[in-house]
Structures are given as C-alpha cells and as structure tokens.
Amino acid sequence: MATTRDAEIRKDVQTYYGQVLKKSADLQTNACVTAARPVPKHIREALQNVNEEVSLRYYGCGLVIPECLENCWILDLGSGSGRDCYALSQLVGEKGHVTGIDMTEGQVEVANKYIEYHMEKYGFQAPNVTFIHGYIEKLGEAGIKNESYDIVISNCVINLVPDKQQVLQEVYRVLKHGGELYFSDVYASLELPEEVRTHKVLRGECLGGALYWKDLAILAQKIGFCPPRLVTANFITVQNKELENMIGDCRFVSATFRLFKLPKTGPTKRCQVIYNGGITGHEKELIFDANFTFKKDETVEVDEETAAILKNSRFAQDFLIRPIGEKLPTCGGYTALEAKDIIKDPFKLAEGSDSAKSRSPPEAASGCATEKCC
C-alpha cells in the first residue's frame, strides 16, 4: 500500500515540476526562493556564468554551495535544470567532477542541453559534469558506487521523497569517509496531518513533505552520521490564502544543515584550532555553521565533535589543530569554548535572523534571494 502511495506522490511531483511549473515565478510560496547568507564574490560570478534558461528553471530553497571545493567530486540530488551543478563544475575545476541526478526527464533534458555551452565558457577541455535520470532514494540503480563522492548536496528536494531515511542511507553509502551532505530543505514545526502531507500543491511547493525538524537528528544518528550542524534558517511565507488556512498553526522554515560521515576512530578530545585562511572566497573568516566562525589566525576552542570533523574531513588542510593547553603560534585573538547553548533548532535561528533584519537598515537586511543571485 505504501509503495503505491509513494508512486502516486512521485508522479504528482514529476507532473508539478515537469508540467505545472515553467519558471520560478510560478511558485505559490517562497519556500524555494528564501533569503540566504550574503553570497561570496566567486560564487556570484560562477552563478552569473550559468545559461539563462537553466537559471529560469531553478526551484531550489537555499544556496547549497559549501566551501573548500577544489578537485572535489560532488553529487547533486534533485539537480533539476542543473543550475547548481554548472556553478559547482566551475568551482571544482577540471580535476573535479559534478554529477546531477533528477527524476524529472524534462529537467534533465534542459540540463544536458547546455553541457557543451558551459564547458566552452569555462575553457575546459572535457566535460566535468554528468546528468542522470533517476531517483535519489535509489542511487545504486543509477550506477552510483559506494564511497565515490566527497560532497553530496541537495536543494529543497529530500522533502519531495516519501522515504527520507532511504535517501539518507543512500547518501551515507556513496559518501567517502570524511565526506558531507550539505543540504537545504524545508522543515515543519509540528508533525504534519495527513491532509497536508497528501495535498498535491503543498507537496509540490515543498511543504507537504516537510520533515518535523527534530526527526532529522534521529534519522542521522540511526544511519551513522554525526549530529546535524545547523548553518542557516529562514521562515517560509505562503502567498495563497487557501493553502495558508489548510496549514493552520504549523510553521515552516527553509534550513541548511551539514551532515558529516566520519571514519570510526577513537574518542576525540576538545581542541584549539587556528584557521589559515586558505579557502577560496573565505580568506578572512570561515562561517562553518550557526555556532562556529573561524577568523584567520585566531585560536578557537572547539568541542570534541567539531574537532573530529575538522581533523577527518577536507577541512583538515586548512586548520592547525592541537590539544587544549598547548601553546600555538598565533598573532590573532583567542576565543574560549563558551558554556553557551549550541543552536540546533532552525526555528530559533530563524527568529534570531528576523530580529537582526528588523534592527538593520533595509540594504543590510535584504541579504540575497537565491533566485536573484543568478
């Protein structure tokens, strides 16, 4: 029975994204165009190089371009028209590779249409991007092998799949040790009632399939990921009165999380770290997530989990990591690990973001709507 219902949901989503939506302006909520952090210059330039038709068919809910990308192999789940893939293919360089997978044939066709256009624009000798028609919960069927990617990204797509645990299990399988899932998606403040979960428009608009935010940590732990690290969060507004009435008291956020797959090693102790400023576009500081910002040459105390991630991921080359108490060569400041609550709740972070925006001048608060970055 569940399989039949899942197939119906999948068909509805394919119809919505393949036939109903022709451009991002057709969306009835801002779930797919919520504001993100200010975008680094090198990423803005990469987005501006993406073909216009590809950008117009983009329906993501956040900017899912992480840091430290040179030579990486990246998989984009639900790559759609290929906007993020083409930006990333430029950022990873000719030695890196980007694969996009999407279940909507029309979107894959748009993406494939412009491979030669982008490779010529970037001056690459051979394509470093591939687009596959397939399902993100069935990566094996699409030919994607174990431990073959450094980074997996997803932009407002996992909510469209009924079996989210299966998606995360597949991501864990294809990630290398030290790799991460860096993804934006929609989360609900409550468990959603059946009439919301099965509503075709709400499903297509990314709200009907939204995960109750606390369930993400439960799924991550069950599969083997480190606890989710919250990066950004913004409230979603609904511009349709009928849909708003159906949702009732439930609130929604678009949030970006990082999930790391680390090798099984012994327990890690708290450490002090110094960022060397070596990541392109983040030379002065690296905003790692909502709780940790690393300024160049400044010593920062980090907890056991953060230390393990920095030691065992692609970020290791950009940090000097030493036990607490050991003297470090630094000309910067020192930030102790404060006894503060780590922000894990995206709704709490979104409330803080809204408060900051209301206190800022309009030009400072506007940020960058992902759709308008292109």
Automatic annotation (TrEMBL):
Q: Name one GO biological process term.
A: arsonoacetate metabolic process
**Residues of the Methyltransferase domain:** 71-217
| Keywords, ordered alphabetically | S-adenosyl-L-methionine, Transferase
The UniProt annotation puts the region (Disordered) at 351-374
Q: Does the keyword S-adenosyl-L-methionine apply?
A: yes
- In the record, what terms sit under GO molecular function? arsenite methyltransferase activity
What reaction does this enzyme carry out catalytically?
A: arsenic triglutathione + 2 [thioredoxin]-dithiol + 2 S-adenosyl-L-methionine + H2O = dimethylarsinous acid + 2 [thioredoxin]-disulfide + 3 glutathione + 2 S-adenosyl-L-homocysteine + 2 H(+); arsenic triglutathione + [thioredoxin]-dithiol + S-adenosyl-L-methionine + 2 H2O = methylarsonous acid + [thioredoxin]-disulfide + 3 glutathione + S-adenosyl-L-homocysteine + H(+); arsenic triglutathione + 3 [thioredoxin]-dithiol + 3 S-adenosyl-L-methionine = trimethylarsine + 3 [thioredoxin]-disulfide + 3 glutathione + 3 S-adenosyl-L-homocysteine + 3 H(+)
Kindly give the Pfam families that the UniProt entry links to this protein.
Answer: Methyltransf_31
Annotated EC:
2.1.1.137
User: In the UniProt record, which is one GO cellular component term?
Assistant: cytosol
Q: Which domain of life is it from?
A: Eukaryota
What does the similarity note say?
Belongs to the methyltransferase superfamily. Arsenite methyltransferase family.
How is this protein named in the record? Arsenite methyltransferase
Source species, please?
Answer: Monodon monoceros (Narwhal)
Q: Provide the gene name from the record.
A: AS3MT
